[in-house]
Amino acid sequence: MSNSERARILVVDDEENIVEVMRSALLSEGYDVQATSDPLRAERMLEENEYDLVVTDLKMTPVDGLGLLRRCKERDPHMQVLLITAFSTVETAVEAMKAGAFDYIVKPFKLSELKLVVRRALEHRATIVENDQLKAMLRQKYDLSNIVGESPAMQRVFERIRKVADTDATVLITGESGTGKELVAKAIFANSRRHDKPFVSINCGALPETLLESELFGYVKGAFTGAIGDKRGLFQAADGGTIFLDEIGLTSPALQVRLLRVLQEREVRRVGDTKDFKVDVRVIAATNEDLQAKVREGKFREDLYYRLSVIPIHIPPLRERASDIPLLVQHFLDRINTKTGRRYRASKEFLDLLTVYEWPGNIRELENVIERATALAEGNILRPEDLPDNIVSYRSEGVPKISRELRAVVEETERAHIARVLDETGGNKRLAARIMGIDLATLYRKMERLGIKG
Length: 454
Fold this sequence. Notes:
Elements: E1 8-12, H1 16-27, E2 32-36, H2 39-48, E3 53-57, H3 65-75, E4 80-85, H4 90-98, E5 103-106, H5 111-141, H6 152-164, E6 171-174, H7 181-190, E7 199-203, H8 209-217, E8 218-219, E9 231-232, H9 234-237, E10 242-246, H10 253-265, E11 267-268, E12 277-278, E13 282-287, H11 291-296, H12 302-308, E14 311-314, H13 325-340, E15 345-346, H14 348-356, H15 362-376, E16 381-382, H16 389-397, H17 401-424, H18 429-436, H19 440-450
Parallel strand pairs: 1-2, 1-3, 3-4, 4-5, 6-13, 6-14, 7-10, 10-13, 15-16
Antiparallel strand pairs: 8-9, 11-12
């Protein structure tokens, strides 16, 4: 926490001269400081005010520093407490640290020492608060309500996530590239009992085998050229939490053996080490490959496959959940609107083109297309001309014959309806648009698309 944020500090000591010295020293650092030599008044001040840090003498009456420490932690678990003690009570101060005090300093102390420990305590509090905020944001961002989809296929995915999230079962997420496998992994984590512990993610296909091994398991000094010190691996870093192994199908046979041992024994051994470390880690893996086919081909260990796929979750490709496309488009537009302050919305013609396209890049491709469209759009309405040529041309090339014939019938019916209303209104387009329940600009676009002159 920077001084400019005016951290609030309460100073308590039953010796008035010491209180004033500490108060003046901390005021000079830019903090908002309140002070008292009466520990009973300090209790009342804790009830009436919010503090980031309390600096208190340990030995006071009728309320001592340990009593104030307990009050502080009851009031706010993140409130930091710094104890001032004499040599004779250092042992008590150490016990107080076990009870939640940040640190202690021994009388007589230098003011420079006091300022240093106070700064460290406030930085520690800021880190804790920031982590809590990030975890809350993570839970909100990856709450199931933020994974978009109403199709039956996605409802099955949601149901599976709800059932397995709060277990420790290993999960294997399968699906094509761009379907949102990592989003599902984070939703499982955010809704699990481990949500306040680490979430560590690694793409197993992005690193060469030797580097991936040292990243996952760590190494000891001298294990290989360049290993100038010991390093913990990601499994140890994720202890108590969750590790997400993306593109697990791209791991080598040797690495698969090591991963199998972690899953079986819950132990890791660093590269070059002779001892094992116990780890408590939930494993979520993902792949866009057919692991069962790789098992049959001898390219993936069968025992590892079964260890990983305790709970399989398959994410359907976007082409199999076309009914979700309008929802996804609105989801991306809401995010862009929030960021830009604009009010983009998609026209029916724009959505029609998106729903017949095959989406080989799945949701990732759709998101990129929406970002591109909003960047190119002249107004707030997204139209077909804002789409890439491959999506526009796909309407005639990729749609089955029966769909093209049906669309032709619909367009002919629409053309005849517009022409009849224009005829009845004597060519008054504004009146015709009002009768048809559309705005004038939409009527002009329909006339242009359907080849209606006038």
